Amino acid sequence: DGGITQSPKYLFRKEGQNVTLSCEQNLNHDAMYWYRQDPGQGLRLIYYSQIVNDFQKGDIAEGYSVSREKKESFPLTVTSAQKNPTAFYLCASLAGTNTGELFFGEGSRLTVL
Amino acid sequence: GENVEQHPSTLSVQEGDSAVIKCTYSDSASNYFPWYKQELGKRPQLIIDIRSNVGEKKDQRIAVTLNKTAKHFSLHITETQPEDSAVYFCAAATGTVSKLTFGTGTRLQVTL
Fold first, then answer.
1. CB-CB: which of B49, B98, B101 is closest to A94?
2. Element at B108 (helix H, strand E)
3. d(CA B107, CA A70)
4. CA–CA distance, A110 with A90 (Å, rounded to integer)
């Protein structure tokens, strides 16, 4: 069953702790993305990667870090430097630059206590 | 960078009526405009898209129109049904569509 898997679905973190969100895809897509979704603010791009071992900052990269060591995996670390980390995080992959269709995971909801 | 504005933020229509959601974009070089639908508790999914060389595209009850001169595009849903209730996002991209900028979303509610 092809798709994008995010884990965990729900995560609670204490202030000052780093946390890593997992994103795995078996669609053989080159490009992967992390978005943050907040009520009334739509989807905002955190980081994206168009190829293994390369990634670019999106519009709200401060306080986040990523890696892309394998084509299938694009984990996101929410660091203690992120001032307002409580949010819903969506990972996505892109089938190709010609198709334009993003395939999203089911999301991870992070709550900082 | 690109800026996409979306209106209205909420929209309530009666079943069978039409719904229209509008978006404007700032970068005149943008050439790809998709629309995503996110049902409650689910992931966003592409429902229709349009490229800048086309003025209108239809798929059954949904259609998208693009006005490049005015830099705005709209989603039209006809004969709305309860299953159309969701949050709809517009987006815009320039060049190879590798980086999309999303609007803030419209929550559509279709009432019986």
1. B98
2. strand B106-111
3. 37
4. 11
Which residues on B lie below 8 Å from A38 (Cβ)?
Answer: none
Could you read off the pLDDT of A55-97 as tens digits, one per residue?
999 999 999 999 999 999 999 999 988 889 999 999 999 977 6
Backbone dihedral region for residue B95 (phi beyond 0: left; psi -120 to 50: alpha; all else: beta)? left
Please name the residues in contact with B105: beta carbons below 8 A apart, sequence gap of 6 or more: A40, A42, B6, B9, B38, B87, B88, B89
Is A106 near chain B, with CB under 8 Å? yes
Number of inter-chain CB pairs under 8 A, A vs B: 53
Pick the closest to residue A10 from A91, A84, A104, A86 (CA basis).
A86
* 3-state secondary structure (DSSP) of residue B60: coil
How far is residue B43 from each of residues A100, B87, B89, measured CA to CA in Å?
Answer: 17, 11, 12
Which percentage of chain A shows pLDDT scores above 70?
96
Helix count (H) and strand count (E) of chain A? Answer: 0, 11
Q: Indicate whether B52 pLDDT > 90.
A: no
- Is the model's pLDDT at A1 over the cut of 60? no
Report yes or no: B93 and B32 within 8 Å, Cβ to Cβ. yes
Cα torsion at A79, A51, B90, B87 (round to 10°)?
Answer: -50
Q: How far is CA A17 from CA A24, A84, B76, in A?
A: 23, 13, 45
Mean of pLDDT values over B46-71: 94
